[in-house]
Design brief:
Elements lengths: L6 E6 L4 E8 L3 E9 L1 H5 L6 H23 L8 E7 L3 H18 L3 E5 H12 L7 E6 L4 E8 L2 E7 L5 H11 L6 H9 L23 H16 L6 H27 L3 E5 L6 H13 L3 E3 L3 H4 L4 H12 L18
Parallel strand pairs: 1-4, 4-5, 6-9, 9-10
Antiparallel strand pairs: 1-2, 2-3, 6-7, 7-8
Helix pairs in contact: 2-3, 4-11, 5-6, 5-7, 6-8, 8-9
The structure holds 5'-O-[(R)-(carboxyoxy)(hydroxy)phosphoryl]adenosine and zinc ion.
């Protein structure tokens, strides 16, 4: 018997991107539509939740229509709808979730609730079609920083996570303090290109204390440094500060990842979440991993940040594992990684 192809429609609306995508058999991307609100929120220096919800309402159905039409499929061809139900902004999440519930109810199709952070990890199955668990995942987004062992497609173990700020959050806060625009990660990265990463020795917290992270001390150290230099009337190289700050974050992320690889014996590591778009992180982790015989996978730029392809991919593996959600599924803004 010929195996039937499985088409999953993914929907993502957890923060400031309204996205929909159609993915075939878990790994073949038929469409990937993202309506970004970044330009609107930039004026406020960060995401304004109420505005985000309203924009998602305007965009969600047009984005879904566009994803179906670009994929050349109709709603009737879709086997299931996968949607992010957390973590994220509650009002934003509810828009995508309500659309997914209404469509699955009207079409009598399965609804699959997806954890946004698992989605980020699954973007790597799109990046590399040979990738199979087990592997180590370094999840670095705007709200989370964690090391996770992906034992199987539906089995994850949290090894450690941040005790305070997430890596992306630290990038955003320092960028804001330095007068750079939102989101701060790409801005710091740009500035850092012209700077010396060894110019200022910023602290690396909890380096030899397991797999938990802490970035709030680093954030304070950078702010104190900028204040002190200004008070002393010394000229500051913004490029050097950006490069040294970025290096302090990347150094901790890479060292902890290598410690976790050595302790678990895992032979593959993947990067997940918005900060994985950072070239210095990609290069330094690739180098350190290769030195211990481990290969690194990370998604292409557009799949590092929020998108619906990763949600459809995660949804596919839940679908074939018969993990279907009920219509009582609610948005969970504080949904945990594991
Ligand atoms: O995964 P994501 O798009 O949204 C969340 O789920 O949080 O991550 C957004 C975060 C922001 O903090 C942003 O500043 C950071 O990812 N980011 C970067 C880069 N691109 C995005 N951080 C460092 N370097 C980058 N190139
Ligand atoms: Zn995200």
């Amino acid at each position: 018997m010929v195996k039937k192809d499985i088409y999953i429609l993914g929907i993502e609306s957890s923060c400031d991107e309204t996205a929909a995508a159609v993915v075939k058999n878990g790994r073949i991307v038929l469409s990937d539509v993202i309506a970004s609100q970044i330009d609107i929120h930039r004026k406020f220096g960060g995401v304004v939740p109420e505005i985000a919800s309203r924009k998602h309402i305007e965009k969600v159905m047009p984005v879904i229509d566009e994803a179906l039409s670009r994929a050349g499929v109709e709603l009737a061809d879709i086997d299931a709808i996968a949607v992010t139900y957390g973590p994220g902004l509650v009002g934003a999440l509810l828009v995508g979730l309500s659309a997914a519930k209404a469509l699955t109810f009207a079409l009598d199709k399965p609804l699959i609730g997806v954890n946004h952070l698992e989605g980020h990890v699954f973007a790597n199955f799109i990046a590399d079609d040979e990738l199979e668990p087990p592997f180590l995942a370094l999840v670095v987004s705007g709200g989370h920083t964690a090391l996770m062992r992906v034992a199987d497609y539906n089995s994850f173990e949290l090894l450690g996570q941040t005790k305070d700020d997430a890596a992306g959050e630290a990038f955003d806060k320092i960028a804001r303090f330095m007068g750079l625009q939102y989101p701060g990660g790409p801005e710091i990265e740009k500035l850092a290109r012209g700077g010396n990463p060894a110019a200022v020795d910023f602290p690396r917290a909890l380096l030899d204390q397991g797999y938990d992270f802490s970035f709030s001390g680093l954030k304070s150290a950078v702010i104190n440094y900028l204040h002190k230099e200004k008070q002393a009337g010394r000229e500051i190289s913004r490029d050097d500060v950006a490069a040294s700050f970025q290096e302090a974050i990347v150094d901790v992320l890479v060292k902890k990842s290598i410690q976790a690889l050595e302790a678990t014996g895992l032979k593959k590591i993947v990067l997940a979440g918005g900060v994985s778009a950072n070239k210095t992180l990609q290069e330094e982790l690739a180098k350190a991993a290769s030195a211990v015989g481990v290969s690194l996978v990370y998604p292409k730029q557009v799949l590092c940040t929020d998108n619906a392809v990763m949600i459809a991919c995660r949804g596919y593996y839940k679908f074939i594992n018969k993990e279907i959600s009920g219509l009582d599924l609610n948005a969970d803004p504080a949904l945990k990684l594991v």
